[in-house]
Amino acid sequence: MGPFSAPDLLNIECVTGFDAPVSGDMPGEVRHYFHLLDELGDGPQPLTHELRVLLGRARIGSCNSGYRPQEGIRCILCAIHSKERLTIPHSLRTYGLAHAIAQCLQLDAEALRSLRAGALLHDIGKLWIPNTVLLKPDGLTAFDWDQVKRHPDIGGRLLREFGLSSEAIVVTRSHHERFDGTGYPDGLRGSDIPLLARLVAIADCFDAMTNYRPYRKAFTPEEASAHILSCAGTVFDPQLVEVFASRPIQDWLSDAAGVIGQ
Ligand SMILES: [Fe+2]
Fold first, then answer.
1. Contact present, 20 and 168 (Cβ < 8 Å)
2. Which of 68, 110, 117, 231 could, after both became Cys, cross-link 168 (CB 3.0–4.6 A)?
3. How many angstroms separate the alpha carbon of residue 119 from the centre of ligand 1?
4. What residues have CB less than 8 Å from 133, skipping those under 6 apart?
């Protein structure tokens, strides 16, 4: 698992070496993949021509013998990146920080592989959220939030269709669950939330807060870190927050940058 950068993530060579944990035989799952795309339709706003072309390539790829799920995933990542430019770099940084923390948890190699796939793809479902919502400069309406809250479910289903391991899928599906049970999409509570998803939730929040969003300024690492500590036991797993709080934030960021080669 060598380091790579955000643009690399869109190159086939990188994704071939992506080493995502894969289970199942893709050709047998093509029908389900088509079904999923048909069921999802265009989402709340019509897909652009460019997105249609990219998704078409994913479909064609899924019909070829010797098809690799990574090829379809690459097409989806390209589609997201052509739609808006925040998600891929955010996912990369989220993975870097989550992996840095994971190295203190003595997870085995298989769990780290699942973490890598799940964290890098955790927002893949945002493909179906319109840019008018994703890039909205003002506060989101209740209707907007309903659309945003679909992305973990859509992302998890996509990864299932691409044949990723269940451990990677749950990272994507459950990264917006909250420790107190008030998150989404399943309202899981405490240790019912998979460990890797609880971990990515911390890294996801930290990275989102420390980077610009159309509706607010970026917070400093110290401010974001303090917010995470204040949410121990409500939003986040208190034991993981304890690990997060055990080192200066700049040390974590230095390790995270090393993970993703930046
Ligand atoms: Fe998300």
1. yes
2. 117
3. 10
4. 44, 140, 144, 147, 148
How far is ligand 1, taken at its centre, from the CA of residue 124, in Å?
Answer: 8
77-125 per-position pLDDT tens digit: 666 766 677 887 788 889 889 999 999 998 998 888 788 878 888 998 8
184 phi and psi angles, rounded to 5 deg: -140, 160
Cα of 65 vs centre of ligand 1, distance in Å, is 33
Q: Cα–Cα distance between 200 and 205 in angstroms, integer?
A: 8
Q: Which two tokens stand for residue 177?
A: 């669950």
Q: Where do the domains of the chain lie, and which CATH numbers do they carry?
A: 6-259 (1.10.3210.10)
H or E segment to which residue 103 belongs: none
Q: What are the distances in angstroms from CA 82 to CA 14, 26, 153?
A: 18, 26, 22
Looking at residue 262, its pLDDT comes to 56
Point out the residues of the chain with pLDDT beneath 50: 1-47, 67
Report the percent of the chain where pLDDT is more than 70.
66
